[in-house]
Amino acid sequence: xTDKEAILQRxxxxxxxxxxIDEDVVRQIKDKIEKLxxxxxxxxxxxxxxxxxYGSFINKARGLGSAPSVIACVGKEADDLExxxxxxxxxxxxxxxxxxxxxxxxxxxxxxxxxxEIKSxxxxxxCIxxxxxxxxxxxRKSKSADQVTAGRKDRPEWFxxxxxxxxxxxxxxxxxxxxxxxxDDDTVEFINNGGVFxxxxxxxxxxxxxxxxxxxx
Length: 217
Ligand SMILES: Cc1cc2nc3c(=O)[nH]c(=O)nc-3n(C[C@H](O)[C@H](O)[C@H](O)COP(=O)(O)O)c2cc1C
What we know:
Layout: H1 3-9, H2 23-40, E1 45-47, H3 57-62, E2 69-76, H4 81-98, E3 102-106, E4 122-131, H5 145-148, E5 149-151, H6 157-166, E6 178-182, E7 188-192, H7 198-213
Parallel strand pairs: 5-6
Antiparallel strand pairs: 1-2, 2-4, 3-4, 6-7
Helix pairs in contact: 1-4, 2-4, 4-7, 6-7
């Protein structure tokens, strides 16, 4: 399954089977995390037992309490930490989809119940629920390309392809508060229009755009 196919297939899943992730799959996840941490200068961690991460009333009610495992997105405090977490975390989310797993980014979780290693100077930004979904989630509403783009009007195909996948990027409360601007010299700007976790969102959007456009910015 290509990255694009995984993106097209993926939706947030909030209900999981009572099944641990296979040992061999866990090894592959840990290998991938090691590589992403190295390139992204992050401390993402696979926590096999989600335990009470989603023990709150709201998360239980949503179904997230059934997630067997969780990815703790940790990194050294830095201005661009949230955006890097979004960018590399989404690369991991796509990989998890390719492994036959389901996921949900979660800004709402119990910090004290996540069994993550947080060293001095580091911050736990967000978590990602992971496991075998009882379903594959569902298609949600989306803004249109016109609503999230700016700049030059004669748009090359690569740009439109990038925007198409950016619109499939998960964002907090499906806010999609970003603008992708095409400049005259073919460079692309990603503008954060605010909102909760919007810096994480922007990293996720960049990751999707690059896969769609098949080029890095
Ligand atoms: C940064 C971020 C935080 C999120 N926080 C939560 C959350 O706390 N609880 C939840 O149920 N979903 C959460 N989500 C999932 C979004 O609601 C979901 O991605 C969005 O509605 C789009 O749906 P999709 O992922 O199926 O495309 C979050 C997503 C992102 C990107």
